[in-house]
Amino acid sequence: QMADPFLYDTGERSQYGCLGHEVQIEHIKAYVCRPSFFTDKAVIVIHDIFGWLFPDTRYIVDLIAGHGYITICPDFFKGTEPWKTTDHWADFADWMKDHDPMKVDKEADVVLKYLKEQCGAKKIGIVGFSWGGMAVHHLMLKNPQLTAGVSLYGIIRDSEERYNLLNPTFFIFGEKDHTISYDEITLLEEKLKQYCKVAYKIKVYPGQVHGFAQLKPEDMKPHDKPYIEEARKDMIDWIKMFI
C-alpha cells in the first residue's frame, strides 16, 4: 500500500460558491473567471490530479482573477475521470500513464488561441499545482507564448532537458512534501544556475506538505496559514512582475 502522498485531507472542504462560469472551447471545457474591468492580461491555471472541478482549484482561479487577470482553468483531462480520493494509490502509476502532464501542449495551444482571439489577451501567464506544476514546468520549456510561469510542487524528473526555460518561472515547494525530495530541489537549483538564461526563482516553505498552497482560508490550519498566504502572495507578485 503506497502512502497517500498528500497528507492533507482532500475530502473535508468547506462549500465554495464559484464566481466564474464554464465555457466550451473546441474539445475542452474550461472554468473562466474575469475581473470586473477590461484587461488584456490572462492567466491559465492547470489543475492537480483532482481535476478542473475541484473547489480548491476554482478558488485559486477566482483569487487570481481578483488581482486583475482573465483567469481560466481548462479540463486538461479532456472529460476523462480525475483521480478520486477513494482510488487506490497502488493504481496511481497506471493512472498517470493515461494522464501525462507532459502531453498538455495541444490543449494549451487551444486555450492560448481562445484567450488571444476571444478575450483579447496580449500577455498570458500560467500557474499549475502538483500534476499541473509538472505541466507548467514542461510548457515553460516548450511554449514561448507563455510570458511567465509558476510551478507549485511539480518537477519534471525523467528528462535531461528541463533547465532551458524560455521565460521567467517560479518554483514553489513545501519543505515536508514527501513526493519531492530536498535533493531534487537542490539539483533543480544547481542546474538552473548553470543552464537557465531567464529569470527564475525557487522557494521552499517551512513545514508545508504537498498541496499546501491551494487551501481556502476556512480550511487552513492556523500554523500553516502564514506560509500559505505568503506562497500565494509570492505567486501573485511573480505574475505581476512579468504580466
UniProtKB/TrEMBL annotation:
Q: What is its main location?
A: cytoplasm
SUPFAM superfamilies (UniProt xref): alpha/beta-Hydrolases
Q: Which domain of life is it from?
A: Eukaryota
* Gene Ontology, cellular component aspect: cytosol
Q: Which Pfam families match?
A: DLH (PF01738)
InterPro entries hit by this protein: AB_hydrolase_fold, CMBL, Dienelactn_hydro
- Please name the GO terms that the record assigns under molecular function: hydrolase activity
Q: Which Gene3D superfamilies match?
A: alpha/beta hydrolase (3.40.50.1820)
Localized where? Cytoplasm, Cytosol
Where does the Dienelactone hydrolase domain start and stop, copy by copy? 28-241
**Cleaved signal peptide residues:** none
Which family would the database say this protein is a member of? Belongs to the dienelactone hydrolase family.
PANTHER family in the record: CARBOXYMETHYLENEBUTENOLIDASE HOMOLOG
Name under which the protein is recorded: Carboxymethylenebutenolidase homolog
- This protein's species is Phalacrocorax carbo
